[in-house]
User: What shape does this take?
Amino acid sequence: MSRPIHILLQTTIEYTANDWHIGRFSMLREYLMSLQGEDGQSLFNVTARDRDPIGTADSVLSALDRSSFDQLWLFAVDTGDGLHVDDLMGIQRFWQRGGGLMIARDHMDLGCSICELGLIGAANIFHSHNAISPVPPPDDRGTGHILWPNFHSGANGDFQRIRAELPVHPIMLDPNAESGTVMYLPAHPHEGAVMPPPLEAGARVIATGRSRMSGLRFNIAVAFEGSQDHGPALTQSTFHHFADYNWDPNRGSPDFVTETPGGNLPATPEAVASVHCYVRNLASWLAGRL
Assistant: This one.
């Protein structure tokens, strides 16, 4: 019997009720905890937490390489101050010793504390950090204060059709889908921008979406294959692909979310199954079991 994979789900903010604290990712935790192998044993053991007070080294992230965790799923929900230099170093050492990383940010500059995470940070393009020049105009113009990157894939609570890029990555395989690949992920009105760092042969785009505003195709996920120098990693265009509010808008959101939500995702079993397949594949791939 293989031991359960120990996953840390963590945000880059200290607990704040009216924000994207870790309690707003409870459906993800519950789903991962529910998964069992053929022997009936749990596949994953999941710890969920917010960071320690801002301005100090986080007690877990700063020592992550000395922990028993196998994977870090980091939800970068801060505005630039979410990772102390000791946290960055702890995460980097964890990755270098073979740990698996999933890093998810959001629109504009939300989550830009991850920019200092070496190659993974370099794969994330923000409005004012790791920026491209000239900065493109907004894609989603429905929320005026949110500037590029803000790709509009649909309303919170709805799902978007995504495309598995060739060659199909193991994370994107879905034998139960008509295409044989993961076809749907939660939608969000303003997703961020991710792209492989230049000259990094071990990183590639594995999934793309299409803006419902401009029709532009945008990157959803960049995967880094594990090597002798580091473990596997994936960086995602938005943490909303994993948030309760996007899986089921009845779970609620912080009151600064003003866009009208949808609700097609929880009402569409095929889409729910696709999201679950993506999550299971991601956790298994990061563990070297896919």
Summary: The longest helix spans residues 269-286. Helices lie at 26-34, 85-96, 118-122, 244-247, 269-286. The first strand starts at residue 5 and ends at 11.
